Fold this sequence. Notes:
By secondary structure, the protein is mainly beta.
Amino acid sequence: SDPNCPFHGTLSVRGQIIDGVVDAVKMNKTVIVKRDYLQFVNKYERYQKRSARYAAHAAPCLNLKVGDSVKIMECRPISKTVAFVVIEKKE
């Protein structure tokens, strides 16, 4: 019933594929996905922990909760901040 579902709707996906963990599910049909990564700092010759947060459209058929491991993929802008869609919920 969701037109922005990549499986049951008409939304096409292209571009980046990102793995992450669901950080918040407070919005309607949208989740925040957090991705941790390491950034090298030349001055100290060490790595720094950083994280990126992506707003991603979550179709109602996925039943996502905080802490779920997911895979998101880039799509056309759905709203001001949402340009990714959840394509897989990992077990």
